[in-house]
Design brief:
- There is one protein chain.
- Helix content is about 40%, strand content about 15%.
- The protein is an alpha+beta fold.
- It folds into 3 domains: about 15-35 and about 50-235, no CATH class; about 255-360, Pdz3 Domain (Roll), CATH 2.30.42.10; about 360-520 and about 550-620 and about 685-709, 2-enoyl-CoA Hydratase, Chain A, domain 1, CATH 3.90.226.10.
- The radius of gyration is 27 Å and the shape is globular.
- It starts with 16 loop residues before the first strand and ends with a helix.
C-alpha cells in the first residue's frame, strides 16, 4: 500500500467551497422592553451612512456579472425576485406591512437591478425604516389587545401560518384582527405549556417588545447583508453576500477554532442564555477549578466586564451578536460575566480567562464498534463521524504545514483502525452539509487508488476533471458511506465517487440533498486591491458565488437528484422539504460525458440486492422502525397544514399530539449525544447499519471466494 501521508499538506486544488444553504441572513430575534418613543438606531443614523455600502453594492453587481455560473444579466427578472425575497425576509407572515406599503414599494420592483449597479441602496433603507415604524405600531396593538381584549377560546376560527396563503392587511382593522388571532395562538401555546393567562400575557408582551428592540439595533452591515443577499440569492440559493462579521464567523467554522470562553449562546426573551458549554473550553476548565464559577447550559448572562476590574455592562436586551463580541477576545485575557444560574436568584460574577477553543464537535471523530457475527466470531467496525469537510483557509493560504484539515484527521483515524484490526469502516455523512472541494477530493483519495474524483464545468461549458493523484489507498477494505437528505455538496462528491468506482456501498435516505454546484469566496477587500494579496485588506465582507457545477466520474450530476442509496432505510429526514429542489431558483440538472476510471465490484447488483433483502426483513420486524414509520405517517399528515385551530379544545388536542411526536423524534431520530466522547447513538438505526455492514463483509468474502473458483 502506497504511503500518501507526505502529500496531505500540499493543497493541489483551488480552494472552492460546497455548501448546503445560503449564508445565514442577519439573525433578528433578541428581546425586551422598548420605550414607545424610542428613536431608530443602527442603519438609520449618520449623514454619510450609505457611502461604504454603495461601493460594496457596485462591487457585488460587477462580480455577479463577471463570475456567476449562469452568466445571467442583472435584469428585471433578478430585480423582481430580489424585491419579493427582501420583503419576505422582514415580514414572512404578512403581519407588519400593509397593502398600501407594498403598493408604494412596488414602484421599485423592476428598478433594483439598476439601483444595485449604481450603488443605490435607498430602497433597503426605505423598507427597513417603514418596518421599524410598523413594528412599533404593532407593539402598541399587542399592548392594547393584551390589556383590553377578552379572548374567546371557545370560538371556532383559525390562524393561517403560511404567508403565501394570505394578503397584506388592507387597513388598520384588518391588521388588528390578524394580530388578535396571532396573539390568541401565542396565548394558547403558553397555556398548553402550563402558564396562567396572566403569565402568558406578560411573557408574550415582553417578547414583542423585545423583538422591536432587537430590530432597532440592526446594524448597517446587517441590513446590507440581508439586502444584497436578496439580490445574489435571486441567481441561485447559494450565492450570498457575507458582511465582515458573518465572514469572520464563517472562517471560525472552517478552521474549527476561535478565542473565547467556549460556550454556545442563544437569545431568549431578552436574555443571553447559555445553550452549551464546550468540553475542554475555558468556561469548562474554570468550572472544574472553581465550582462557584461553573457555567452551565441554561444559565443567563446579564452583564459583561473586561479584565479583572472593568466596568460591568448590562447586556439584557442587547443584540446577541453584540454580546458575543464582548465575550470573545484574545486568549489569556480575562472576561467577567454576571450570571444568573438557570435565570434565577442573585447575579454571580464569574472570572474566566479566555483561551483558544477547539470546536471538537465539528471535527472528524472515530470509534471502534465490536460486534459478534452469526458464526460467533468477533468483528471490529470502525465508525467515523464527519460533520463537514473543513479546512483552515488562512493557514492554507499561508502554507502552514500544520493546517487544520478533515483529510488529515480522517487519515489518523483510519491508521488507528488498521493498527487495531478493524474489518470494515462506516463513514457517517448524515449531517455533513459540505465544505472544501479540496478536502472532498483528497479525502475520497484515502479510499480509492488513483483517478478522477469529480468533474467540474464552468460558465463556458468547459469540463475539467479533478483527480486523486496519490497512488494507493489508506483504507482498501469494506466501506459503508452513510448519508441522508442533509448530506450535501462535498458529501455527495465523495458518496458519488465511491459508488461510481464500486469501492463501497451507500446506505441511508433514498437520496442525498442534491446540491451539485461549486462556490468560491471572493473577499471584497482583496478584490478591491486587484488580487494584490495585501496583509491587511479593507474589511468589506465577501461574496460567496456559484461559479461551477460538479459531476461524478460517471458524468452524472448530483444537482437536484443527489446520490441514490444502494440500501435505503426509513428516516424522518427523507420526508422533509430540505432538499435542493425545495429552495428558490436552484440551478437545473444536466450531465456531462463519462471520464475514465477503474471500477471494482464491491457494489455489484446481486450483492446490493441481497443486502436490501436482508435489511428489509429486519426493518419490517423492528419495533424501532415500526414506531418511526407511524411517526412519519403522522408527520406527513401535519406537514402540509397551513393553519392552526384557535378553538382551545381542538388546539390542546393537536398540541398534545405534536408534543408527543417531538418527544418521539428526539428519542428515535436522535438528539446529539451529550457525552462528547460518544461518536454514535446506539439505537435501532445504528443497529441496522451495523447489521448491514456485517452482511456486507460476509457477502464480499463470499463474492471473493466465488470469483477465485
Amino acid at each position: 500500500m502506497a504511503n500518501v501521508r507526505g502529500t496531505w499538506t500540499n493543497l493541489r486544488h483551488p480552494i472552492f467551497f460546497l455548501f448546503t444553504v445560503a449564508a445565514t441572513f442577519a439573525t433578528l430575534v433578541v428581546a425586551s422592553l422598548i420605550p414607545k418613543d424610542a428613536p431608530a438606531q443602527g442603519p438609520l443614523a449618520g449623514p454619510d451612512r450609505h457611502l461604504p455600502e454603495r461601493h460594496i453594492s457596485r462591487m457585488v453587481s460587477r462580480l455577479l456579472l463577471r463570475d456567476h455560473l449562469s452568466s445571467a444579466p442583472l435584469d428585471d427578472t433578478i430585480s423582481q425576485r430580489a424585491f419579493d425575497k427582501f420583503l419576505k425576509f422582514w415580514d414572512p407572515l404578512k403581519l407588519y406591512f400593509t397593502e398600501a406599503d407594498i403598493a408604494e414599494f412596488s414602484a421599485n420592483r423592476n428598478l433594483l437591478d439598476d439601483q444595485i449597479r449604481s450603488g443605490n441602496t435607498e430602497f433597503a433603507h426605505k423598507v427597513f425604516e417603514r418596518f421599524i415604524q410598523r413594528t412599533l405600531e404593532r407593539v402598541q396593538t399587542v399592548d392594547d389587545l393584551l390589556a383590553n381584549h377578552e379572548f374567546n377560546f371557545e370560538e371556532d376560527e383559525v390562524f393561517v401560518t403560511d404567508g403565501d396563503k394570505v394578503k397584506y392587511p388592507a387597513n388598520a382593522a384588518e391588521a388588528t384582527d390578524r394580530w388578535r388571532k396571532r396573539l390568541k395562538y401565542d396565548l394558547l401555546t403558553q397555556l398548553a405549556d402550563g402558564k396562567t393567562l396572566e403569565e402568558a400575557k406578560e411573557r408574550i408582551g415582553k417578547r414583542y417588545h423585545s423583538y422591536a428592540r432587537r430590530i432597532g439595533q440592526t446594524s448597517e452591515d446587517e441590513l446590507l447583508e440581508v439586502y444584497l443577499t436578496s439580490v445574489t440569492s435571486a441567481y441561485d440559493p447559494h450565492t450570498t453576500y457575507m458582511s465582515p462579521g458573518t465572514l469572520e464567523n464563517f472562517n471560525i467554522q472552517m478552521r474549527l477554532n476561535l478565542e473565547g470562553i467556549g460556550a454556545a449562546l442563544m437569545s431568549e426573551d431578552g436574555f443571553c442564555k447559555v445553550s452549551k458549554v464546550i468540553p475542554g473550553g475555558a468556561a469548562d476548565k474554570q468550572g472544574k477549578k472553581n465550582a462557584e464559577e461553573k457555567l452551565e447550559a441554561g444559565d443567563f448572562i446579564v452583564s459583561v466586564g473586561q479584565g479583572t476590574d472593568g466596568e460591568m455592562v448590562d447586556v439584557v436586551d442587547m443584540k446577541l451578536n453584540d454580546v458575543v463580541d464582548m465575550i470573545r477576545g484574545k486568549a489569556n485575557t480575562v472576561v467577567r460575566l454576571g450570571v444568573k444560574k438557570k435565570g434565577k436568584g442573585e447575579t454571580k460574577i464569574f472570572n474566566i480567562t479566555r483561551a483558544k477553543v477547539e470546536l471538537k464537535d465539528s471535527e472528524a471523530r472515530g470509534e471502534i464498534v465490536e460486534q459478534t457475527t452469526a458464526d460467533g466470531q468477533k468483528m471490529k467496525i470502525g465508525w467515523i463521524d464527519l460533520p463537514s469537510f473543513y479546512l483552515d483557509m488562512e493557514a492554507a493560504r499561508s502554507g502552514n504545514p500544520n493546517v487544520k484539515r478533515s483529510t488529515i484527521d480522517v487519515a489518523r483515524l483510519l491508521e488507528d483502525f488498521r493498527q487495531k484490526g478493524v474489518e470494515a469502516v462506516v463513514l457517517d455523512l448524515r449531517r455533513n452539509g459540505g465544505g472544501s472541494l479540496t478536502e472532498a477530493i483528497d479525502l475520497t483519495g484515502l479510499f480509492i487508488d488513483q483517478g478522477p474524483v469529480v468533474q467540474v464545468k464552468d460558465a463556458d461549458n468547459n469540463v475539467h476533471p479533478y483527480e486523486d493523484m496519490n497512488r494507493g489507498m489508506l483504507w482498501d477494505g469494506p466501506l459503508v458511506v452513510l448519508t441522508s437528505k442533509m448530506s450535501a455538496s462535498a458529501s455527495e462528491i465523495l458518496a458519488g465517487a465511491i459508488q461510481d468506482y464500486g469501492r463501497g456501498i451507500v446506505v441511508g435516505d433514498e437520496q442525498t440533498h442534491g446540491k451539485g454546484t461549486v462556490q468560491t469566496l471572493l473577499d471584497l477587500g482583496r478584490e478591491e486591491l486587484m488580487g494584490a494579496n495585501p496583509v491587511n485588506p479593507p474589511s468589506l465582507g465577501a461574496l460567496k458565488i456559484t461559479l461551477q457545477k460538479f459531476y461524478r466520474p460517471s458524468g452524472k450530476s448530483t444537482q437536484l437528484k443527489g446520490v441514490e442509496a444502494d440500501v435505503s432505510l426509513p428516516a424522518l429526514t427523507a420526508n422533509m422539504d430540505i432538499a435542493e429542489g425545495d429552495l428558490d431558483y436552484p440551478v437545473p440538472f444536466d450531465t456531462v460525458q463519462t471520464t475514465r476510471y477503474p471500477v471494482s465490484n464491491a457494489n455489484a447488483a446481486p450483492l446490493v440486492a441481497e443486502l436490501n433483502r436482508l435489511s428489509g426483513q429486519r426493518v419490517q420486524s423492528s419495533e424501532g422502525f415500526s414506531k418511526l414509520n407511524k411517526m412519519i405517517a403522522t408527520y406527513l399528515e401535519q406537514k402540509d397544514k397551513k393553519q392552526v385551530d384557535l378553538n382551545k379544545q381542538k388546539f390542546m388536542a393537536e398540541y398534545e399530539a405534536l408534543s408527543e411526536r417531538e418527544k418521539e423524534i428526539e428519542s428515535l431520530v436522535g438528539e446529539a449525544d451529550e457525552d462528547p466522547n460518544e461518536v454514535v447513538d446506539r439505537d435501532y438505526y445504528f443497529d441496522e447499519v451495523i447489521n448491514i455492514t456485517k452482511d456486507y463483509v460476509r457477502l464480499l468474502e463470499q463474492q471473493k471466494v466465488a470469483s477465485n473458483n
